[in-house]
Amino acid sequence: MFNINQKPTFTREVQIPVPVDDGHENQSIKVTFLARQDAELAQYNTRTLEGQKQMLRDVILSIEDIVDDEGQPVPYSPGLLEKLMSWTFAVLALLSAYSKSMADARLGN
Questions:
Q1: pLDDT tens sequence across 57-74
Q2: Is residue 1 in some structural domain?
Q3: How far is 26 from 33, CA to CA, in rounded Å?
């Protein structure tokens, strides 16, 4: 049975391709997202970087597996999300993970 009033969430491991030397190093984080309805997602102008960031602010509920320079875990906070989103490559990886998960859900995969 489908619960029409649900607020579904899902957690994904997100690979972030961090630029290093002549290539990239994939670093992973675990992100819990809020699934939004199409009409809600349509309000964001995801053709702009600021529109992408605003959507991510609204759909990301938590992030895990982030450490500081000493290897100590960093707890999730809105400030941590903003710091992560200061890197375009992180924004693109987060958007890709969310979009792929939502598209897979639409296709029933």
A1: 999 999 999 999 999 999
A2: no
A3: 20
